[in-house]
Amino acid sequence: MFIQKLKTICLLLTFCILPACSLVGETTDPVSKQPQQLKINQGFVNPIGFYDATPNFSWQLPQIEQSIQQSRYQIVVASNPELLPNQPDLWDSQVVTSNQTTFIDYQGKALTSRQKVYWQVKYWDQHGQPSNWSEIAHFELGLLSNQDWQAQWIEIDNQQPIKLNKFKTPIHIPQHLRTEFASNKTINKARLYITAKGVFEAFINGKKIGDDILTPGYTPYKKRIETLTYDVTNMINQGKNAFGIQLAEGWYAGRFGPKRHWHKKLELTPKVLAQLEIEFVDGSKQLVITDKNWCATQNGPVRTSGLYDGERYDANFELIDNKTAWHQVGYPTSSWQAVKTTTLEQDVLLTPKRHFTSKNKEELPALSVTKVADKYIFDLGQNMVGVPRIKIPMLKGQTLNLRFAEGINADGSLYTKNLGSAKQLDFYTAKQDGVVEWQPQFTFHGFRYVEISGFDESYQPQTSWVTGIVQYTDFALAGSFVSSNNQLNQLQSNIEWGLKGNFLDIPTDCPQRSERLGWTGDALAFANTSLFVADSHAFWAAWMQSIREEQFENHGVPVVVPNEVGEIVQAGWSDAAVTIPWDVYWRTGDTDILAENYDMMTRWIKYHQGQLKDGISHMWTVGDWLQPYSTMPDSRRGETDNTLISSAFYARSLDLVARTAKVLGKQQDWQDYQRLFEQAKRDFQQHFFDANGRLKVGIQTQTAYLLAIGFDLLDAETTQKAVPHLLAQFDAAGGHLRTGFLGTPLIAPVLDKIGRADVALDLVFKQSYPSWLYSVSQGATTMWERWDGFTFDKGYAKKAGSLNHYAYGAIGQWLYDRLAGISPLTAGYQNIRIAPIVTEHLSFVEASYQSPHGLISSKWQLNSSTVTLDIVIPANTTAQVEIPTHIFNKQEQNKASRTTKLTGDVSLNGQPIKQSLPSNNQLTLTAGKYKIEVKR
Ligand code: BGC
Fold first, then answer.
1. Across residues 341-365, what is the average pLDDT?
2. Any residues with CB less than 8 A from the CB of 733 and at least 6 apart, and which?
């Protein structure tokens, strides 16, 4: 209480700016004052096999009672922890006057492959008081260049692919490859560097290395393949060792992507590359590499495994001889074959993985099991992506058949129509009677329901027989959002599951049908939302590298990355090349993402310019994809004029490239792109809008107005005039949305921007089709591709759609930024905007976000006499709090006014502050916990 009072006094004394004032109970415990959360680049904590020899450093100030601001910092970097902090042999930043705590570039001696580096940081607070040095953090570089590899690609000699009649693509039977080696001295450390053209799991002495899945992941394999590094020091015996690798087709060699491009894969066969480097205590080294000395077989238990089609396991083929397994020492290999080696291509870069691997992240127990015809269907209660883990009694020789689906038909059977040609089928053949425990290794499925048949029928199926193993990229969830409305909470959960389901190494459109591709337009829609939901900074930065690599020579950017679809470039999709780096920068404060992508972004502008005729773009686009009630011949395409869409995105990309140039200090470019943006705006307005702000080209649509206003393409006066026309479009639709992939993300932000958050709220809380809560009311547990993916009365949409498509989850951004009220005021949240919208639709909203500076949280509650805000601001930041001045009423109450004014009677931490509030009702606060009450 006393602390709160003191904070208030500080506030009153400083004209509404709460400075960092010394508060009671100032801790003398030096540890609690140390910098914390030491990370490098996009959030890596003490990584090994790191990808970047010129890293940058980030830390957080401690979140303690005092409001600390950093005034100076010092970073020291050394090759040995004993040299820290006083003899940093690699770099000493010296004392730098700055409040920056994120992405500080290393500027020391050149670092090399395998090098282990130690670092520490300290800061001085606003009073000039130094903190203690932080704990020592470290990183170890991976193999940074192809020259570091002595290993060769290996694969079984004379591979036996079997032809699939229907698709005419080869199925590559998974391989087991092995070698043995002796290490006769005491081991100091051992590292395994490994990757595959395909997907692999590696084993030493019978134990799996690491807990990653589907490694190395999915990049443009012709340009770059990511490598993994594992610390295997404790897995190697002094004496004999066995080293085994399982290899399957994965994204690289499997039936993946659109059918018309499968012929390109006909010649590709899976290969693996591994280099085990052992260092002994005496300083000597041993190298075990993939080479001619390995042997291989395709007669293992994983008979087939493909990403779309599933996995077939036959336990009769298990590679065990007299209790010795194939990956253990002494296993006989007389029936195994030689391997074929291929030398490394110099133009395919082998680079350490630059984001996090995928893992088994969560387990979903089955909630029920129902008999339908003579099959049993398990319901996990949640549409998910990953594999099943089964524990099922079987009889020798039986083959268990597992089928997967996102939904069920009216008769309770599996709904698989939306899977396209992806079979998603797993099989397990038992070699003896007993309970089988199994989880597929080299495939993934999108499903909520699992159907099984072919087990020991003397047992009654139990829910414990099937568990859903949820797999996605190993990042932490960063944001939370909960409100008093269960449907809104379900929507939030669906958005979160849309991310979990489509962030398996790359951002995908959907995870279940024969597609699962890195569609750029879907990513463009969802990136901002995803950056709140999860710490997806590294994930996006890695995918942007793939986009750079896939950019065409004519500067076009493909619609799918890695590119599996050929030379297709499309407005509103390919613009992700510009919008996503900007979104990532804005949410994280990382200017590297802009610097790394700047060249691609400006080349993309050139491509755009090549599509202009008299200032209007004629770039190809499928348009406002999946707009409901479209009258176009192909009803998947929205009604908004294509040239309007392409011209709007040209201008939008110019605007963001101009801003990027400014951030990067490229003055001339900034001015040039700014000028081009102004010109593009003028052309846009003149061509598409009349003097009354009314659209004059093509069909009147919500999306046309949303793009124009959302991208700031009309002058102020015309914008004002366009507003009634936009609102008329919502009225004409009975207060519903009529937008597809391009318009939907803009609805709420644009309505909010024009001062009509009330209309945005009406749309967000709408229950009837099409709306966000409509799918919730129809039982959705993920975001759907189509607004009417399933309806209780009509069943599944006629044009079968994916039930796990994140694009419409883009509404999340507005829920977090405005309904909860947490958004960055400057890039990376060093200045935070807390501006919640309070509405009678809800009695509370509570959200939090793990920002680069620490936890931000915002909660508002509405009761009969007050609106209460509880806010937490992290150290070294300031927040501008916009104190609510009114409550948004519910539409159906038919009140004359759409808002109810609050009294303006405001208290901060129990102290009235009405008089000291500026007229705009804004407070600037520094780190701390605050309670603001506004009387109704
Ligand atoms: C994908 C979409 C994508 C679209 C573009 C679809 O097949 O699933 O999400 O953006 O094609 O044409």
1. 97
2. 702
Ligand 1 atom nearest 522 alpha carbon:
10
CA distance 258 to 564: 7
Least confident of 626-635, 889-898, 916-925: 889-898
Q: Which residue has the tokens 């010109």?
A: 679
Placement of tokens 């294509």 in the chain = 642
224-231 vs 349-352, strand pairing mode: parallel
SS3 of 929, please? strand
Give percent of the chain with pLDDT exceeding 70.
95
Tell me phi and psi for residue 439, to 5 degrees.
-145, 125
Distance from Cα 519 to the centre of ligand 1, integer Å: 7
Atom 3 (ligand 1): residue with closest C-alpha?
519
| CB-based burial, 433-464: b 16+ in 10 Å, e otherwise | eeebebbbbbbbbbbbbbbbebbbeeeebeee
- Ligand 1 pocket list (CB less than 6 A): 509-510, 515, 519, 521-522, 622, 625, 805
The per-residue pLDDT for range 656-692, each reduced to its tens digit, is: 999 999 999 999 999 999 999 999 999 999 999 999 9
**Angle at Cα 607 formed by Cα 740 and Cα 565, nearest 5°?**
60
Q: Whose CA is nearest to atom 11 of ligand 1?
A: 519
Whether omega for the bond prior to residue 85 falls within 30 degrees of 0, making it cis, is yes
| Active-site residue (options: 550, 639, 785, 933) | 785
Strands 844-851 and 831-834: unpaired
- The pLDDT > 90 percentage for the chain reads 89
CA 518 / ligand 1 centre spacing (Å): 10
